[in-house]
Design a protein that fits this description.
By secondary structure, this protein is of the alpha/beta class. The chain has twelve helices and eleven strands. Helix 9 links the parallel strand 7 and strand 8. It is elongated, with a radius of gyration of 24 Å. The model has no long low-confidence stretch (mean pLDDT 91).
Length: 290
């Protein structure tokens, strides 16, 4: 089994077609088939089911793909580190929408002071998407909300965060002496889409006290929800970091709800098999110190 075998396997996995993989790698189709056969014989497993001229990845194939992508990325990184100029650094960072909007630019500015010639790429997306990218070695680090039960990932807490419930200052709930979680279920709720970390935490906490959530608006855009709240369309549930300036300016006001805890932690996440370069370690330190 060689690096060549793994590159061929990854191409077949991605294309699910021997001919397409051959074209991608500028090889002949028989050479591709032979390499896959050699891998299967080497490990004594079937990597693809061949049914009606289509390929289907087996469980063994899925396992090999996870390892193969990491191995190939490490080999490519080795080539880059040995061949490129010594001071050239590359860093690919994933960030959830909160960190990507409010924090990551500060971290990158400080990192650039240490590595002025560094090549930095940032991917902003939901935590589940970034986690899969970490597993495929498409990211070096991800800055996301706290995650649980992911044994293949290292989680490094670096900052406290909280979700807030906000409305325009004249909203009738501000006239109440005490606002309960039940009270807000009767309001027009402006929420992020399903799967977003903010939405997940809010629904979890509401469900824990026996309440369900029915959104009036759903959006992938925090800005759209902020504008809707300012324009009296309802009450928004968003990270404090994204609405802080609007609260300070008086456009929005935070509703204090006693029986629901929306605090959370932000973490730096990376794969347990990831080789942390000096640049990555310095970036992690910047996140902790900022």
């Amino acid at each position: 089994m060689t690096i060549r075998h793994l590159r061929i396997f990854i191409a077949v996995y991605d294309e699910l077609n021997m001919t397409a993989a051959a074209k991608k790698l500028f090889m002949t189709q028989p050479s591709i088939s032979q390499a896959v056969k050699e891998l299967e014989e080497y490990y004594g497993v079937l990597l693809f089911e061949r049914l009606s001229r289509r390929l289907y990845v087996t469980e063994s194939g899925e396992i090999l793909y996870k390892y193969a992508t990491h191995i190939i990325k490490l080999v490519d990184e080795l080539d880059d580190n040995l061949k490129e100029e010594a001071f050239q650094e590359k860093l690919t960072i994933g960030a959830n929408y909160t960190v990507g909007t409010a924090l990551v630019h500060e971290y990158i500015d400080k990192f650039k002071n240490l590595y002025p010639d560094a090549e930095i790429r940032v991917v902003i997306n939901k935590a589940p998407v970034l986690i899969e990218m970490l597993r495929k070695n498409q990211l070096d680090l991800a800055l996301i909300e706290e995650i649980l039960n992911e044994s293949d990932l290292i989680k490094d807490y670096f900052r406290d965060d909280r979700i807030v419930i906000v409305a325009e200052p004249d909203h009738h709930l501000f006239a109440q002496k005490k606002v309960t979680a039940y009270d807000i279920t009767n309001e027009h709720l402006l929420l992020r889409e399903k799967g977003a970390g903010v939405r997940n935490l809010f629904e979890l906490r509401m469900n824990e006290i026996g309440l369900s959530v029915k959104p009036y608006w759903e959006s992938t855009s925090a800005t759209a929800l902020i504008n809707a709240a300012i324009n009296k369309m309802g009450i928004a549930v968003l990270p404090f970091l994204l609405v802080k300036e609007h609260i300070i300016s008086g456009n929005l006001k935070e509703l204090k709800v006693k029986d629901i805890d929306l605090r959370r932690k932000l973490t730096i996440v990376y794969h347990k098999n990831k080789l942390l370069t000096n640049a990555m370690q310095d970036f992690i330190s910047i996140c902790h110190e900022s």
